[in-house]
Structure formats: structure tokens, C-alpha cells
Amino acid sequence: MVDGLGADSTLKPPNVVAGAAKFSPSKQRLPFRRVEDDASGVLPELADNSFAAKKGARGSWGERADMTLKFTRGKDFRHEKTKKKRGTYSGGVISTAVCSFKFNE
């Protein structure tokens, strides 16, 4: 039906979404996850990502920095890190050992 302005009154307003009627409230909505959470898939060697769990961490160059910075959070971390970079800090001997992990694929 055409009203006095020449517009068709049987048309839907432009803000109506065509797929909105297909949504059912019974379907549970889940957040997007690129990788599924599966606790059994984590290797025990890789479960702990701390500096102390790293192979060869004892006596290494970063051990002293780790002891100072591991409890520091936020803005204070940046401040402490900058203080360590000033040149008066000596962490010890720098090791050239390889600490990589080989994955079995």
C-alpha cells in the first residue's frame, strides 16, 4: 500500500536485521577461542613459565634481577627495570648455553 508520501508502507524499517529472528535463546553463546582449553595437552616441562623453572637458571646472569623484579607489578616494574639498566647493575657471567625445548611433532 502506498501512503500519501509515495512510500510503500509494507516495507520493513531499515533497522530490522534479517537474521535476528533466527536467534534462539536456548543456544548457549561461547566466547571465541582460537585454541581449545585442554589441560591434558600441556607438557609438564612447559607448565611453569617462571624464571626459576628454567633449565640452568641457578647462578645465571638474570637470577639476581629475577629476585628483585618478580614481585614488582605495574608502573613500579618499569621504574625498577630502568634502574637496573643504568649500568651500575652487574648480574653475573652471561652464559651462552642453549636452553631451547625440542617439540615432538
From TrEMBL:
Residues 31-103 form the Srp40 C-terminal domain. It comes from the Eukaryota. The lineage of its organism: Eukaryota, Metazoa, Spiralia, Lophotrochozoa, Platyhelminthes. One of its GO terms (cellular component) is nucleolus. Residues 1-22 are annotated as: Disordered. This is SRP40_C domain-containing protein. Coiled coil: none annotated. It comes from Hydatigena taeniaeformis. InterPro entries: Nopp140-like, Srp40_C.
